[in-house]
Amino acid sequence: MTQRLTHQRLTLTLAAGPIVLALLLVVFYVVTEQAGMRLLTDRALNPAELVIEDDPPGLIRRLRAGDSPVATYDVGSDVLARSARRMTPMEAAAYRDRGSMLDLLVREGVPDDDAMRAHLLCIAERMGSRDVIAMLSRPGVTAVCGPRADAVAPLPAGAGR
Amino acid sequence: MTAITPRAAVWCYAVVVATTAAYFLIDIPVQLSDSLQNIFAVDRRALWDLMENNLWAVGYLRPLLFAPIRIVYLLSDGDYTAWFRGVHAAQLTLTIALCVAVMRVRTWPQAAAAPVGLAVLLSMHTFADTIREAFPVNAYLTIVACCLAAVLLARSRHCWWSDPATVLLFVLAAFSAESGLLVWVVVVAAFAAGWRGVSRWGVAATTLGLAGYFILRYLVLDIGTPGLDERATGFGLAVLQPDEIQARFGANPLPFYLYNILASVGSVLFAEPRAGVFWAVRDVLRQELQPWMVVNIVACTAVTVLLVTHVVRGWDRWRRWALDDADRMVVVFVAVMGANATMNLVYTKDVIMSPAGALFGIAAFGALSSRLADTTPSRAGSFRVPVLVVVIALTWGIKTAGVHYSLRDSAHGTRKAWAYADSWLEDQEVDLSRPRERAIKDALMADALWRRPAAPRIQIHWRWPGSWFDTTQ
Known about the structure:
Strand content of chain A: under 5%
Structural class of chain B: mainly alpha
Largest sheet of chain A: 3 strands, antiparallel
Largest interface: A-B, 42 and 52 residues
Oligomer: heterodimer
Number of strands of chain B: 2
Distance between the termini of chain A: 61 Å
Strand order of the largest sheet of chain A: 1-2-3
Helix content of chain A: 55-70%
Shape of chain A: elongated
Radius of gyration of chain A: 24 Å
Helix content of chain B: 55-70%
Largest sheet of chain B: 2 strands, antiparallel
Radius of gyration of chain B: 23 Å
Low-confidence stretches of chain A: 156-161
Structural class of chain A: mainly alpha
Order of helices and strands of chain A: HHHEHEHHHHE
Number of helices of chain B: 22
C-alpha cells in the first residue's frame, strides 16, 4: 500500500513537474523584470547600437527621449561581435547594411544631402552593404572616403563591452 | 488546518497561467497590418451597418465579426491599445477558466494531468495566432471559448437555461466565423458520447440553427464558399499561390481538398505539416532542422499516442459504448478535429484548427488523468514510470516556457512594424485623408513606440534555448 502510494506520488510529480517548473521559471523572470533586473536582456543600448541590432522601436524611443540621431556613439564589442568602434547611427546603418534603418533615420530628421550620401556610400562599399548601396546611389553621388574613411574608428582595447 | 484540495490547487495554478500569459500578451501593441484598417472600418460605420455589410461578403458569412470591435472601439474612448489588449487578455483568461471548468478536477491524478491539458491549450501551435494576433478582437479565440463553453454546458447538470444558452453560443460563434459551426459538432458529439447537460431538445434546436445557417448562406444570401483562387496555401514542401493552385487542381480539386483535410489532421496530431507545408521534412532535406521542430513533433505525437493507448486500454468500454468522462473528452475531440479539418478545404491555416487544438488539450487531460489513476508498481516491486508520461511532461514543459518567449518576440515584431508604419501605409495606399483616421494611426503608433512602456526583448545569446523555443507558436 505504502509502495503504491509512493509510486503514484512519484508518477504524478513527474507528469506535472516539468510543466509547473517551466511556468515557475516564467514567473521568476516576470518578477525580476518588474524588479528592474536584466536577466535575459541586453544592457541599455545607444542609438548606433540599436541600428546594429536592428531594433527600430528602441531607436525611436531613444530619439524621442532626446538622444541625437547625428551624434557619434561607442558601439560595444558585444554588439559588433568584434572590436568596439565609434560611429553615428547613419554610419552604423551603412556598416551593417540596414537600409530600412537609414530610411527611418531620415524620416526622424537626419539631413539627407549628397555629402552624407557620399560618405555613407564609402562605408557601404567597404562593407559590401548591397541594400544601402542601392538606396544611396543616385546620379552625381560617388563614394567619398574622407578622414573617417573606415567611419568606424576602433576604440581602445577594453572600451565598450 | 484544512489541506488544499486538488480542485483548489488547479484553480490556483490556472490563475498563475492566466496572469503570466496576460502579462506577456498585454505588452504586444495593436497590430498594424491586420488591425488598423479594421479600426478605420468600425470608426466609419454604425454597428448595424457593419453587420449588414458583412452579410454580403463574397465567400464568407460573418455578420458578428466586426460587432465586438465596434463595441470595444466605442468603449475605449481613444485609449485603443489598453482596451483592445485588455479585452484580448480577458478573452484568454475566460478561455483558460472554461478549460479548467471542463476538466472538473476532483482527484490528485486529475490535478497532475491538468497542467498538461493547459499546456496543450496554450502552447499548441494552432493556438498561437489566437494570442499573438488580433484583428484587433480575435474572433478565433472567441470561437475556441464558445466551443469550450459548449463542452462545459454538455458536461454539466442540465438546467432550464442550458439549452437556450447552447443555441445562443452557436449563433454567436457561427456568425463570427465559419469555424463557429463547430459548436454544433461539440453539442452533437457530447450528446452521442453520453453527456446530457444539453438535452435532446437543445441538440435539436442547435441542429435547427445549423439548418437555418445553411439556408441563409446558400439559398437566401447566395454567399457560397471561397474558391481555389481565395489565397495561397501550403502543399508538400512549398506554398502554392492561387494561380498555381488553379493550374494544378482547377480541373479536379478533389485531391487538393483531400490533402488539405489530411494535412489539417496531421497538423494537430503530429505538428506536421504546418499550414499544409511539411516544414520539418523540408528542413531535414536542407539540413536546417531546428530543435523546436523536433520538440513540437514529439510533443504532439506523444499526446496522440496517449490518446490511442487510452482507447486501446479501454477497448471493452468503447466496444459497448459505455464511456466514462475521459472517453467522452476523446470522442468530442475526434469529432471536432474531423469537422474542423473539413473547413480547411480550399486553404489550410493553423489557427483555423484552434478549436481542435484546444480540445486536443482536453482529451490529453482526460486520457492522462485516467492513466495516472491506474499507475501501479511493477510486479518486481520496482518503480516503473511510464516513459510516455515523462516525454509529454518534458516536451510540453519546453513549449510552456516557449510560448511566453514567443509572445515577447511578437511584441517586438509588432513594434518594429509600427516603426515603419508610414512607409507601409504608403505602399498599401491606405487612405489617411480624414483627420480622425490620422489621429487613430498616430495614437496607436505612439502607444506602440514610445507612449507605453515597452518590456525589453529577451536576448538569449546561448544558442540552445533560442533554437528550442518555437517563435511560431
